[in-house]
User: Fold this.
Amino acid sequence: MIDLKMKKSIYAFIGCALLMLATSCDKTKSYSELLTEEEHAVNWYMAQQEIVPYVPSDSVFEVGSEAPFYKMDEDGFVYMQVIDTGDLDNRPKKGDIVYYRYKYKNVKDMYNGYTPSWIGNADNLLESSSSLIFGTTVITSTVQLGEGLQVPLKYLGYDCEVNIVIKSPKGPTKLQTECIPYLYNIKYFKAEY
Assistant:
């Protein structure tokens, strides 16, 4: 026979187990919920910007820190603000090795009220540049930060600089299931042989 003290201990244990189970289930979000959060975060950020909902037909972008963000694809996965067009007479060609320096912030963190610091190699010249092979989406080193990073190279020249918002489907391959959008500042350079 179980005494009263033992019954209370069992009930307390069961209560704690149920509370832990309910708490752990509450923290797991579905992919659909994560996508919705990502959409809200990007919409919040873009609502603070001037947006042109298409790529100019002549590919002549407004330039500068006050320039609008352009919606670069019909799905709205990539928005680009051109800070500097670079050398429009010297554009990357498919297969070119392109070096870039970048820094980024998590847009979802910004949406949730945090002030994330910039992360990346843009401000540390002792850290090596990153590189990609333009027009390739199968080489791991090229797409590790996502194919969205190649979008500016289709329109701009070497030595260009952009701010670009990239949603997870075009972002870092390792993080696509986490549905995190990033704001990047990127400068692209030609490989010197």
Summary: The chain is about 25% helix and 20% strand.
